[in-house]
Amino acid sequence: MYSSNLKGFILAVVSSAFIGSSFIIKKKGLRKAGVNGPRASSGGYGYLLEPLWWVGMITMIIGEIANFVAYIYAPAVLVTPLGALSIIVSAILAHFILKEKLQKMGMLGCLLCIVGSTVIVLHAPEERSINSVEEIWELATQPAFLLYTASAVAIALVLILYYAPRCGQTNIMVYIGICSVIGSLTVMSIKAIGIAIKLTLEGTNQAKYFQTWIFAMVAITCIITQLNYLNMALDTFNTAIVSPIYYALFTSFTILASAIDYSGQSASSIASELCGFITVLSGTAVLHSTRDPDTPLITDLYTPLSPKVSWYIQGNGELWKQKDEDGSSPSFITTLRQDYFK
To answer: What's the superkingdom here (predicted)?
Structure first.
């Protein structure tokens, strides 16, 4: 028993280290790709050609696999709280590698997100054992889950089509909200595919069922959408803030999607889950209010393209560039203005 829990503990810690590191590596890759082309936050996809971004992606996949295996060896009570270590890892690495600062209130927001998501997981209803793709399909076509799916898709479309173009660059909840809502559907589809692969390897071919291919198409669509907006969030906002908000909301929506078909929970469990969700929302609000101001992506005609380099027009009409380290304007501008108003 103790040996199994120790294996789960080690795998959970390793998973957190890999997942937390992946945010930093992908952010570095996004920055590097943004130098030679459109940034991900502006709709660019140059990061797909950047090897460093793929290193971060592979690192995240390894972390998720380790996390999945950890649940096999140890109970969720042990594994889930350790999963929150990825937030601490990403915050520390962002501080030293990306030079991103997290204020004291931001640390409080991280703590609230970790506590809230842990409370939700520990009081979530246990999942029933599922042994076939058809069984998952039966659960997925129940009215409660269909209502959740329709609501999730509607919310995601509103965020993508209306809010993302208007305030996606200034409100972190837009991009992270899309990732979290779509991510909950991703998990459900991946679970179905995992069971299909397991049963097929055991000798019961699941590829003959059309439900398997529907789950596969849903999973691919959701994963592409989720990764796209996660990259936009990482490219736009502080990594130390993106990581805890994404962890908290993704965990909350995934548990909601997993538990929506189950009933019979006690009033105390439901109350605990609501308190956990309110704690998560409080933490995300604190984190969003303490984030550093972002540099505007679009500059007007009077804003220099670089804070240290400005262009001026001399009297003979030629362009002259001055590297201005202290922010002072060249002296000839003052002389020109004085001559103009004489």
So the answer is: Eukaryota
pLDDT computed for residue 260 by the predictor? 58
Judge whether 330 and 312 are in contact, CB under 8 Å. yes
Rounded Cα distance, 112 and 281, in Å: 9
Burial of 253 (0-12, 13-18, 19+ CB in 10 A): buried
pLDDT of residue 266 exceeding 80, the answer is: no
- CA-to-CA separations, 48 to 20, 58, 103, 306, in angstroms, rounded: 20, 13, 32, 27
Q: Which domain holds residue 67?
A: 1-128+281-291
**CA–CA distance, 292 with 288 (Å, rounded to integer):** 9
| 3-class DSSP state of 310 | strand
Q: What is the dihedral of CA 92, 30, 167, 162, to 10 degrees?
A: -130
Is 97 in the same domain as 137?
Answer: no
The most confident of the ranges 77-86, 126-135, 155-164 is 155-164
Number of domains into which the chain is organized: 2
- Same domain for 63 and 137, yes or no, is no
Residue 309: φ, ψ to 5°: -130, 125
